[in-house]
Amino acid sequence: MSLGEKIQILRKLKGLSQEELASALGVSRQALSKWECNTSIPDISKIVALSNYFSVSTDYLLKDEYIDENVVLSTETKKQSGNIPIAISTAIITIGLIIAFAMANDGTLFFYWEFSSAALGIGIQIIGICIYEVLYFSKHFEIKNQYLFWGINTWLLSAMPTILSSGVLSKLLNGFEVFHYSFNIMLFYLIFNGALTFYFFILSKRWYNTK
């Protein structure tokens, strides 16, 4: 692993931007960017400053074959822990969807369900989103976790609004038109969420390619 890669990993583990780390070291962001890209090398005083700032040895920074087990462990732990908020929040959002569906279902066709009946479940889904976003920004997880979270949950979060919008149509239209427009809404749900999921997948692939 090169010096630049090590600096980048250590910076991300601390949740720092290039600007923040550069300021702490007394260099420009452009200089730090060149270090991380291995187009230039910091002088010995900055190597020592990096060692002190990140609490790692200069051997770890300078020797390609030298592996600091604490850094490796921290990196792997962060990758694994980043999936925990996704699992917890997705479970909460799923529970919210089930509750919304159960409370809105009064035995009639879904065209006639009322939004007020599903409000509790939708509220729980919103809480699930808030929990994830608070954990994401406070723990400085990698951006790929954000892509994964929204790629999954866009389907769960838009399900009830899609169903309830059909209910609004039922009050405005009658007979065949209700089924016709509701079918179009469901088709839009599939296309829209499929496109969003694909978009987040592409962003995730780009993130991996630029690492």
Task: Describe the overall structure.
It comes from Marinisporobacter balticus. Helices cover 79% and strands 0% of the residues. Helix 8 packs antiparallel against helix 9 (143-172) and helix 9 (143-172) runs antiparallel to helix 10 (176-209). The protein has 211 residues and is an all-alpha fold. The radius of gyration is 24 Å and the shape is elongated. The protein folds into two domains: 3-76, 434 Repressor (Amino-terminal Domain) (Orthogonal Bundle), CATH 1.10.260; 82-209.
The overall number of domains is: 2
- What proportion strand? under 5%
The profile of the biggest β sheet is: none
Outline the low-pLDDT stretches: none
Number of helices: 10
The overall pLDDT, averaged over residues, is 81
SSE-based structural type: mainly alpha
Number of strands: 0
Instruction: Quote the distance from N terminus to C terminus.
Output: 13 Å
Q: Tell me, what's the shape?
A: elongated
Q: What string gives the helices and strands in order?
A: HHHHHHHHHH
Percent helix: over 70%
InterPro entries: Cro/C1-type_HTH, Lambda_DNA-bd_dom_sf
GO molecular function, one term: DNA binding
Keywords: DNA-binding, Membrane, Transmembrane, Transmembrane helix
Protein name: Transcriptional regulator with XRE-family HTH domain
What's the SSE blueprint?
Layout: H1 3-13, H2 18-25, H3 29-36, H4 44-54, H5 58-62, H6 69-81, H7 83-104, H8 115-139, H9 143-172, H10 176-209
Helix pairs in contact: 2-3, 7-8, 7-9, 8-9, 9-10
List keywords for this structure.
transmembrane helix, 434 Repressor (Amino-terminal Domain), membrane, transmembrane, Transcriptional regulator with XRE-family HTH domain, elongated, DNA-binding, 2 domains, mainly alpha
